[in-house]
Amino acid sequence: MSKVSIAIIGLNGFIGKHVLNAINSGIFDSKIQFPVKAITRKEGTKSSDKIEYIVSAETSPNDTKLIDALKGVDVVVELTGPNPELFANIEKILAQVKPKLFIPSQFGTDIPQVDTYAPGFLALKTQHSENVRKIGGIKVVDIITSLFAVPGAFLYDWVGAVGITEQGVNLIGDIDQKFHISKLEDVGNVVLAVATHDSIAKLPDLVHVASDVVTVKDVIDKYSSSKGVKLDVVSKKSADEGRKEFVEKLNAGFNPNDFLFYLQVIIAQGLDKGLYFSHLDNELFNPNESLWKWGKF
Fold first, then answer.
1. Which InterPro entries is this protein grouped with (predicted)?
2. Domains in the chain, please, with CATH?
3. DSSP character string of 238-260
């Protein structure tokens, strides 16, 4: 297989640093045509032999310098937050540069699974992938990772997604409910494993990957132990009660302040409802952990 040329939009978020680390790890060197092009808004970022920074203040389809830099690139990876204007701009850019593969900023929750009981959740992200597919000639692969697990942050210190508050635990569903988690180091590697896959045409439209499986109780116990606090369950709702409340809230309009509640309800729904998957594609991208070892919670 010939080496693939890659461009990345949005390297400054949670995932960007780990994709950079994966690029610099050497694991994928035999498959990547260097330098990887990194689209950034920040002036003065120093390029290297592996990464060429291209400054574009607006990430605009009217930026001829940007379009020229992206023409002929095999793979475009998007690591931005969900933003309607930015997504629309990226769609217009992709229509001009026509990469073979586009990896959109999906990650996290399997939105089509959530749509089966709470239609419209994060519809912007789903629509974005579909819009690019409609351009034609571009393979779009949504990478679904379930929840990130980040020491000092997600699921270690930021624990609202399992109902932990200063008062105790507001439980929704079964405390022993399982769900998948992904370490960001693994997500960075997966992005490159998808981007450098031997046969782009044979890739599924949507893949599930994860580092580990945990339960709600595992997260509560780890937090309790690390912080030296006793956490009692102070309220309980069934998964069904949570789902009904989720739908009501969503129908009133998406509220970022309710996001952790949404995630908690999705966890409570169980298997193949958004955050716990009956099938993972880990082996497709890292057979027998031959490229790297998956992280643990």
1. NAD(P)-bd_dom_sf, NmrA/Isoflavone_reductase-like
2. 6-146+182-210+276-289 (3.40.50.720), 160-179+213-269 (no CATH)
3. -HHHHHHHHHHHHHT---GGGHH
